[in-house]
Design goal:
The protein is an alpha/beta fold. 49% of the residues lie in helices and 12% in strands. Bound molecules: NADPH dihydro-nicotinamide-adenine-dinucleotide phosphate. This is Pyrroline-5-carboxylate reductase.
Length: 256
């Protein structure tokens, strides 16, 4: 069975390791880099097929597929100091490290791919965008809920930009809850009400072929309050700001 080595064991690597191994009968062998010592030790302590290497080169030496979860600032430099083999593959989660540069620093690794994993990989419940695809990366994310192969690098970067909208989504919910608590609903109750409302609605997103226009229409009676609020946000330029913000994130990603 394919063995996996993780370099950089932070929050996203931990989610992937849990998805690969926790409660899985045919869990693969997993080797972790030692930095982020507490998290690596915790994972190795409770998952029988997971162990911690003595250094990053030990991870590369032990793995068929090396999964890179380093921070963007020094990922390329850290990888360039390691020796890869031609018979291994590399999957990177590092934002902004483009395929050409990544391939250069992990040469002669034969299959190299980028990915945008999200925390839901921990429950094998997330389809992960990958570029440009390949047997190793698709087998890896197949264990974590599946992959969405994107051949064009700018299209892939655009998906990465779209994944930067999560904090703003929670900010929006927070604004609604804060408005409620400013009108006399105690904060915890206001937040619980908003959380319950949107948790229940999220089920509708699980249906195949989610159509956001149709969902918006289904939740707005003509002449009603939902229709008014959505129109007011549009008039205030909120949706234009979403598009402009995404353009700015994409520009930052592609600037490297
Ligand atoms: N979090 C997410 O949801 C997502 C993250 N990503 C990408 O994944 C990467 C990691 O993100 P995230 O997990 O959030 O980051 P974290 O800050 O949680 O973890 C980074 C880890 O890398 C370790 N590290 C730093 N330098 C080295 C090194 N030279 N060798 C080995 N380990 C090292 C750190 O160890 P120490 O603590 O000892 O410094 C830390 O444990 C980023 O590039 C990010 O863009 C992509 C998609 C989603």
């Amino acid at each position: 069975m394919t063995s996996y080595g993780f370099i950089g064991v932070g929050s996203i690597a931990a989610a992937m390791v849990v998805g690969l191994c926790d409660g899985v009968t045919d869990a693969p062998e997993v080797v972790l880099s030692p930095r982020g010592a507490e998290r690596s030790a915790e994972l190795a302590g409770r998952l029988p097929t997971v162990r911690v290497a003595t250094d990053n080169q030990g991870v590369v030496d032990a793995a068929d597929v090396v999964v890179v979860c380093l921070l963007p600032g020094d990922a390329a430099e850290s990888l360039a100091g390691l020796t890869f083999r031609a018979d291994q593959s590399v999957v990177s989660a590092v934002a902004g490290l483009d395929l050409a540069h990544l391939s250069e620093v992990v040469a002669p690794a034969r299959e190299v791919a980028r990915s945008v994993p999200l925390p839901a990989v921990a429950s094998r419940d997330s389809v992960t965008p990958v570029h440009p695809g390949g047997a190793a990366v698709e087998e890896f994310f197949g264990r974590l809920g599946g992959s969405l192969v994107i051949q064009d690098e700018l299209a892939y970067e655009s998906v990465a930009a779209a994944s930067a909208t999560v904090a703003a989504y929670f900010g929006y919910l927070g604004a609604v809850a804060d408005w409620l608590s400013g009108r006399g609903i105690p904060g915890p109750e206001a937040r619980r009400y908003v959380a319950n409302t949107f948790a229940a609605l999220s089920v509708e997103l699980g249906a195949p072929g989610a159509d956001f226009t149709a969902l918006a229409q289904a939740h707005s009676t003509p002449g009603g309050l939902n229709e008014q609020f959505a129109r007011d946000l549009g008039t205030a330029g909120v949706y234009d700001a979403v598009r402009d913000g995404l353009d700015a994130v994409l520009a930052r990603i592609t600037a490297g």
